[in-house]
Write a structure and sequence with these properties.
Elements: E1 7-11, H1 15-24, E2 30-34, E3 56-58, H2 60-69, H3 73-80, E4 83-86, E5 91-95, E6 98-99, E7 108-112, H4 114-125, E8 131-134, E9 137-144, E10 151-158, E11 161-166, E12 169-172, H5 180-186, E13 193-208, E14 218-221, E15 230-236, E16 242-248, H6 261-267, H7 275-281, E17 284-285, E18 290-300, E19 311-313, E20 319-320, H8 328-343, H9 353-372, E21 379-380, H10 386-399, H11 404-414, H12 426-434
Parallel strand pairs: 1-2, 1-12, 2-8, 5-14, 12-19
Antiparallel strand pairs: 3-7, 4-7, 5-6, 9-10, 10-11, 13-16, 13-17, 13-18, 13-21, 14-15, 15-16, 18-20
Helix pairs in contact: 1-4, 1-8, 2-8, 8-9
Length: about 425
């Protein structure tokens, strides 16, 4: 066994793993990130990040946390070419059959490609001297103490050799394919899963659009469930390019029909409005179609079991939500901040930390499945009171198309900077019941 003083191991070198590494680095002598993929080439997507070709906008909570972890982040991103927009004025959002109200605001959002964002984060990671990366390193299993109360290391496959590494802290940020659930169950701990079958498909291409003045930086047409299943987005990103994405619920997009440029543009005619189709028809595709399937979303309830000391499950390893709502990276940033806070006062225990991460996930999970279950074909356990929640939220959506104050509250909740209770203020409830 290799032993270092106060050593932390993070499984997974994606955005979640990177942010956690930076967040805990002041409190450990060595932080080692173990990544199964090879190091990505510049401006490219790692093979293990199948969602990496699609739109990646940072929500307000995400960019606030990244600013805390990497001071100067916002200024740097804008200088390097990320598209900073007014979240209310530069964002055209057709939602549940109506355009959201647009107005100049104090809110800002950053638009960029996944490789652009990840390369910046990695550049900041590289200057933190006690963080080390090991690429092409597969973690096979955890090593538990004799009494099973603590995880003390990992078994890995590296350069064709099996090795063991010891650590004081191990964090699984490896993603939806994580082995943590099966490992815990081999130790006699049943991990309950909340799983919702949504049959979601993403199809994305990059485009060069005619150079002209546009009154939007990102345009989103969301399907009006349960009648419509296909939506789409068109977002400006660095380098003057645009990322166009089609999304379909309940397996409503056939990947073979969107593989060609002609097929992709033709499919965009199925969107609720012709706006995106018209833009793409006048543009030129710069890439092939990239397809990403999300058959189901899942929350593995590690917070409900007795977790061994020294082990934390984070990011998509813990909960993979519907990515169309764009909250995954912000959840990862909030979790990284929470994990860092846990060790900031000399605390070495992980007791209770998994439950704190669950408190970050819970309101987002509730919002997401409220929408996903509007389709009768979606399968999964429905929460108590879902019908009432859906009625209230639908009313809220309609009002937020015309009431700026309520829309701002909605934006804050969606961007994870205000609690969901913000949407239940007496004045808002009054408007809900007044509406037709």
């Amino acid at each position: 066994m290799i032993k270092d003083s106060a050593r932390a191991i993070i499984i997974g070198g994606g955005i979640s793993g990177k942010l956690i590494a930076a967040s805990i680095s002041p409190y450990f002598d060595r932080v080692e990130v173990l990544e199964k993929d090879a190091k990505a080439k510049e401006n490219s997507v790692r093979p293990g990040v199948s969602q990496g070709h699609h739109i990646h906008a940072l929500l307000h909570a995400g960019d606030q946390m990244l600013e805390m972890i990497f001071p100067g982040f916002k200024d740097d991103m804008e200088k390097k070419g990320s598209i900073k927009i007014d979240s209310l004025n530069d964002f055209y959002w057709f939602h549940h059959g109506a355009w959201k109200i647009r107005s100049k605001s104090e809110f800002s959002t950053f638009l960029q490609s996944r490789p652009f964002l990840e390369e910046y984060i990695e550049s900041r990671i590289n200057i933190i001297k006690n963080i080390a990366y090991s690429y092409e390193t597969k973690v096979l299993a955890y090593i538990g103490s004799d009494d099973k109360r603590k995880v003390i290391g990992v078994k890995i496959l590296q350069d064709g050799e099996r090795k063991t590494l010891s650590a004081d802290l191990i964090i699984d940020a490896s993603g939806a394919a994580s082995f943590s659930k099966s490992w815990m169950e081999k130790q006699g701990q049943k991990v309950y899963e909340e799983k919702v079958e949504i049959g979601l498909c993403y199809a994305t291409r990059q485009f060069q659009l005619p150079d002209k003045e546009r009154d939007f930086k990102i345009k989103l047409t969301y399907p009006n469930p349960p009648f419509e299943k296909i939506g789409g987005a068109l977002s400006k990103v660095e380098g003057g390019k645009y990322i166009a994405t089609l999304i379909g619920y309940i397996n409503s997009i056939k990947p073979e029909e969107v593989q060609s440029e002609e097929g992709f543009i033709k499919y965009s005619k199925k969107l609720p409005l012709p706006d995106i189709y018209q833009e793409l028809s006048a543009g030129k595709s710069l890439s092939e179609t990239r397809v990403f399937n999300i058959p189901h979303i899942v929350w593995r309830r590690f917070d409900r079991i007795h977790m061994p000391e020294g082990l934390i499950i984070a990011g998509d390893s813990f909960c993979r939500i519907d990515p169309f709502f764009g909250q995954g990276m912000s959840i990862a940033a909030l979790q990284a901040n929470e994990i860092g806070k846990n060790f900031s006062k000399g605390n070495r225990s992980t007791s209770g930390l998994q439950k704190k991460l669950a408190k970050i996930v819970k309101p987002v999970w509730s919002m997401v499945i409220c929408e996903d279950f509007r389709y009768s074909e979606v399968k999964g356990k429905k929460p108590f009171g879902l019908a009432i929640q859906q009625w209230y939220v639908k009313k809220l959506f309609k009002i937020s198309a015309t009431n700026l104050s309520i829309y701002k509250d909605f934006v804050k909740v969606m961007n994870l900077t205000s609690p969901i209770t913000t949407l239940f203020k007496p004045s808002t409830i009054k408007e809900i019941f007044k509406s037709k």
